[in-house]
Amino acid sequence: MENQPYSSSTPHPSSSNDHSLGMWMHLGPLLAILLNVFIPIPFLSLIVAIGLYYMYRDRSTFAKANGIESVNFQITLTIAGFVILFISVLFFGGSMMRMLMGSNAGDEAASESGVMGMVGTSIIVGIIYFLIMLAAIVLMIIGSIRANNGSVYHYPLALRFMK
């Protein structure tokens, strides 16, 4: 049973050590996200997920399957972060240009709308980022619990780069 791949989220017979390894595949990146609040290290959760996967992929197919899911999810979160950053820079930069051009031309309304655009962009992007991170934390906790119970957790909306 050890050499068979785990492809569904139904429980599989495996040892408690395998369950612990599978749990840490999801819990490690979560702890890295929480650590990033205090020590900002770019891509730390992705680095932790990849590191755990490569360290433990040969110990059990269960840990390998959970590691693949975790790495795919962390890659998806990284891509989502870059998309949010790109959109933020685009809208924030546009609002800043409107503010600067309005103030240079003496158009107070254009300048004020540029400031409001920057504030609005910051609020909207902040809320979207907060909701994505909250969902990611909840999903990683669910993944940890499911792996500890003997199931491979497939993250919803995660892109499948590794198979």
Write up what this structure looks like.
The chain has 163 residues and is an all-alpha fold. It has one domain. The chain is built from 4 helices and no strands.
Helicity level, as a percent range?
Answer: over 70%
Please give the count of helices.
4
Largest sheet: none
Which of globular, elongated, flat, extended, rod-shaped describes the shape? elongated
**Helical/strand content category:** mainly alpha
Distance between the termini: 19 Å
User: Which sequence of SSEs, written as H and E, runs from N to C?
Assistant: HHHH
Low-confidence stretches: none
Brief rundown of the structure:
Helix 1 runs antiparallel to helix 4 (108-148) and helix 2 (44-56) packs antiparallel against helix 3. This protein has helices at 16-36, 44-56, 61-105, 108-148. It has 4 helices and no strands.
Topology overview:
Layout lengths: L15 H21 L7 H13 L4 H45 L2 H41 L15
Helix pairs in contact: 1-2, 1-3, 1-4, 2-3, 3-4
Quick tags:
163 residues, 74% helix, elongated
